[in-house]
Specification:
205 residues, alpha/beta, seven-stranded mixed β-sheet, five-stranded mixed β-sheet, globular
Amino acid sequence: MMKILALDTSSKYISAAIADGIGGKIIASVHKGADQMQCERLLPEIDKLLKRAKLKIGDINIIIFSKGPGSLTSLRIGAAVVKGLAFTRKIKIVGVPTLDVIAEGCSGSLVVPIVDARRGNVYCSVYSRKGGKLSRKMKYSVIPVAELLKSVKGDTMFTGDGLAAYAQYIRDNFKYKAEFAPEKYWYPRAETVLKLGLGLIKKRK
């Protein structure tokens, strides 16, 4: 049966999961802080995960990874590791936008993920949820928070690590009701990367 490795290195966490089959059944996962040790910890964590799943990297058929935006250093490390693992073994690679992953992990009928881009800007988009299905309503952007708030029409669930810097500004300046996801939902998880990546694979078939 097909084996899939899902990874996210876009934030201060290493998040990884291994699934058995296109149905996405998780057989091993990890989600832990990495900070400046991302480079040193990523490959050992993947190795530990493979051992827990009783697999070798050569058993992996697909790698799905969160391709950003986020921490540039962490994203580069993640991309380099993915390419290094996949290239010689001819493993298929699927990239998933990080903002999609953050939005998917949060409840609400109107969801806005924001990732701190520094200097008053955020990486962001706007999503609506109908019947449990999330759809993107705005292009992926890097804009000031004030500009983002002008683009959002309606009561909104905000999420993402940008809230650490901008939650109070949103409270003070947003014209509609603003709700804020708990911090544990701000960061992408490999399980959600897997879900969205499998969705892309199925669409391409």
